[in-house]
Amino acid sequence: MKRYDLQLALRGLLRHRAQTLLIIVTMAIGIASCMTAYTILSALTAAPIAHGSRHLYLVSMSSQPLPKPGDHDAAPSMPTLLKLRDAQALVDARKAVRQAYLATAFINASSDHGKTHSGSQFAWLTSSQAPALFGISVRYGRVWSHVEAVARMPLVVIDEHLSRKLFGVADGVGHSLRIQGHLFRVVGITADWIVRRQFFDLEELNLRGKLTIGMLLPLQSAMAAGIGPFAPGPCDNSSQKAPVYGPPAADCRWLETWVRLDTPQQVQSYRRYLLNYATAQHAAGRFPRAPKVALHGMDDWVVQNNGVPSSVHINLWLSLAFLALCMVNVMGLLLARFLRGSYEVAVRRTLGATRASVFTQHLIEAGGVSLLGGALAVPLTLLGLWLVRLQKVGYSSAAHLNLSMFITLFVLAVGVGLIVGALPAWRASTLSPALQIKTN
User: Which residue of 152, 208, 285, 367 is 20 to 30 Å from 113, comparing CA positions?
Assistant: First the structure.
């Protein structure tokens, strides 16, 4: 009987082709608009990195100077940028599971013969534990050691994409590249690592969408070659202008320090260590303010400083309302369609078909329409995301459909189709066969 119900449902889809097409297009447009808005929201609320972001914390402490007499204290909050001396002390202490400091730089590199150029690359000036801390996979070679960093050896780790661009091979270990006239030897090649959402330099840079870190440089080696961060940060000596793209002065705060802490006990222990460190520096006269420290979880820090624009939430609610309107129209079209075939249903019922069989037939027909609507919604969603990427908005680069969104799209299509088709199918199955035959 189920096979027969399926055959009847397929015949029903083909009998009224114009109405079937209208239902499919209406459903597809509603689902595509909703999925376009939902995809953008999901990309903007995703964890900054693929794994482990909930265990990563940004260090903050009250290391800034007191305001001068008569000046307003414009920065009473604790800065998240530390001086080189403090960042190195925290990392070298190894009180966390893993720890690393970093600063962002934009670097133009070339192959050692100077014929191939990288273009502007996102680079980190960082310490050796950064790849392990942030889940960056080293595919070839290795990361520089602490001894090599202290010796300021000109070493660099680049991603596979940059290796292919500069050297023509994925494994560029052993090659050299030139940065600002200095040769750096490639010791490691990482897999292409994409940052889903910016979590670093949020107070200096406001970037949207996915970011690729193409180069990792030992901080000490970079400074020895005259390479500095894009944003050097504030300096205690206000009369001193911090250099741009050059190594900052000793009294400038320009390094973020990130740590991995896996348990609440580790978080509490590390917070006590930070407070003890700040207290010791305050007693030594380096931190003029009262000792205060904080640990900012990566996910919360991103939401706090680089939250989702209100327009994205508004667009999602509008698309949900539009989807509801489309589904009401689909329900009305299905109801009119099923009632139009009430005479055939009455004949089936007279010949012995049960209400459950009639309900199943019409529900299968509604499900078939929803599958076709979901299939059409896929290219419409891709079109919508492409149109979003053409717009000059900060989140345009996040408009990409991934596999999970694709699966969600189909589940939504089938689920909505069955829900809106249940009422018309039930209404058709409850019609009185005797009354319908008598009327016709």
Answer: 152
Other CB atoms within a 10 A radius of the CB of residue 354 amount to 12
Domain that residue 356 falls in: 2-47+309-439
pTM of the predicted model as reported, rounded to 2 decimal places: 0.73
324 and 399 in one domain?
Answer: yes
Residue 301 has pLDDT above 90, yes or no: no
Q: Write out the two tokens for 41.
A: 């929201």
Q: First vs last Cα of the chain: how many Å apart?
A: 26
What distances in angstroms separate CA 262 from CA 24, 55, 97, 129, one per listed residue?
49, 5, 8, 16
DSSP state of 216: E
- Per-residue pLDDT reduced to its tens digit, 314-352: 888 888 888 888 888 877 777 666 665 554 555 555 555
The alpha carbon of 35 is separated from its chain's Cα centroid by a whole number of angstroms, namely 16
359 alpha-carbon distance from chain centroid:
43
- On whether both 26 and 127 belong to a single domain, the answer is no
Q: How far apart are CA 242 and CA 207, in angstroms?
A: 23
**SS3 string of 369-407?**
HHHHHHHHHHHHHHHHHHHHHHCCCCCHHHCCCCHHHHH
Query: Residue 409 CA to chain centroid, in angstroms?
Result: 19
Count CA atoms closer than 13 A to 171's CA, side-chain side.
4
Please tell me whether residue 86 adopts helix, strand or coil conformation: helix
Give me 249's structure tokens.
């002065």
* Tens digit of each residue's pLDDT (9 = 90 or more) over 89-140: 999 999 999 999 999 998 888 887 767 787 788 899 999 999 999 989 999 9
Select from 357, 401, 334, 299 the least CA-distant residue to 36: 401
Residue 54 is which amino acid? Answer: R
The mean predicted confidence, pLDDT, of the chain is 80
- Report the C-alpha gap between 187 and 356 in whole angstroms: 69
Of 193, 227, 260, the residue that ends a domain is: 260
